[in-house]
Design brief:
This protein is an alpha/beta fold. The protein has helices at about 20-30, 50-60, 75-80, 100-110, 145-155, 175-180, 190-200, 245-255, 260-275, 285-295, 295-310, 315-325; strands spanning about 10-15, 35-40, 65, 90, 95-100, 115-125, 130-135, 170, 205-215. Strand 2 (about 35-40), helix 2 (about 50-60) and strand 3 (about 65) form a beta-alpha-beta unit. The chain starts with 7 loop residues before the first strand and ends with a helix.
Length: about 325
């Protein structure tokens, strides 16, 4: 079979993206994997986004452009997924950039690893000018062959390290459509992208290409894993206080029906408790949050509680059963 026989659908929702969308489109159109269809859904942009997109449609038949009469918000994210008809699907943001081998490497990874339904690469953060700022920690720990370890690693990873960027990986279309129907991302509360990804990881394996082939643009702040002096630390560690309960409960619900439900409850509540204890006042401190989370006492408490769950007879066998049940859903 030809390595490029599989159709990849790229969904690009956009609103007022004139400043960066050319760079995004240019990096997608030079992909070494050529068999893709790019669906751009414009959320009623008021700038030059429409004109730019129509210009690209005219010069490349793989691009489809549609425009909504009004801004539909997060609905647009689902809309581009609904348009997908190929074997694989990926979301693309209008202000990001991809290495030319991004799609090729991930398609090859999923073709060679049939037990995986999602794939991702390591991420480099870039600023408004496209200059590299920093590289996120490796995501390989989320693809541990020990599925339990992969799930635990995702739960424990501080949000500031960019684990939400897994959303911009590659998925088997049938899998991601089933998942999105059950665990839709939206803007109703904080962190639904992380919760959605966790729901996916509970039910499949992740393939990771450890090369840094995705350039995530930070248009607001410099990302260097330290808190800017004038920034609210709630934006960089755990959800703002008013969203914490929803966020924790979201992870528990995402694991419902799998053997990871109680584990999610324990770890996320422990993280919440450690976070709240680290706040010296209304502002809190990122350094203290992370140091509490990974302090000897914090780890001891975590491993003690986790051990109670993992010691359950037949726990490891239930991992495979969980994934089999979902595959037959």
């Amino acid at each position: 079979m030809n390595k490029q026989d599989k159709l990849v659908n790229i969904g690009l929702p956009v609103f007022n993206g004139e400043k960066f969308i050319r760079q995004a489109l240019d990096s997608l159109l030079v992909q070494t994997y050529k068999n893709f269809e790019l669906n751009i859904s414009d959320n009623a942009s008021t700038d030059k986004t429409e004109a730019i997109c129509r210009e690209y449609v005219a010069k490349d038949r793989r691009i489809r452009y549609s425009r909504n009469d009004q801004n539909q918000g997060a609905w647009n994210f689902k809309h581009v997924l609904d348009l997908a008809t190929g074997d694989y699907f990926m979301w693309a943001a209008h202000d990001d950039v991809w290495h030319e081998d991004f799609i090729k490497k991930l398609v090859e990874g999923l073709e060679e690893n049939k037990d995986c339904d999602m794939a991702a690469v390591n991420v480099i953060n870039i600023d408004i000018a496209g200059k590299a700022i920093s590289q996120n920690p490796s995501i390989a720990k989320f693809a541990d062959k020990n599925h339990l370890s992969a799930v635990v690693n995702f739960l424990r990873e501080p949000e500031i390290y960019g684990k939400a960027n897994l959303v911009y990986g590659l998925y088997r279309t049938t899998f991601i459509k089933r998942m999105y129907d059950r665990y839709e991302m939206n803007n109703k509360y904080w962190g639904t992208d992380c919760i959605f990804l966790f729901a996916c990881l509970c039910r499949t394996n992740l393939f990771v290409c450890e090369e840094a082939l995705f350039y995530k643009r930070d248009t607001k702040t410099v990302v260097n894993f330290s808190r800017p002096a004038n920034a609210n630390p709630d934006d960089y560690t755990f959800p703002p206080l008013k969203y914490i309960e929803d966020y924790v409960n979201g992870f528990v619900l995402a694991a419902k029906g799998t053997i990871y439900e109680e584990l999610a409850r324990v770890i996320m509540n422990l993280r919440k408790d450690l976070y709240l204890k680290s706040r010296p006042g209304k502002l809190g401190r990122l350094g203290e949050t992370i140091s509490h989370l990974f302090s000897p006492n914090g780890l001891q408490n975590f491993f003690y509680k986790a051990k109670l769950i993992l010691s359950e007879p037949g726990f490891k066998k239930k991992v495979k059963k969980t994934k089999d049940l979902f595959n037959n859903y």
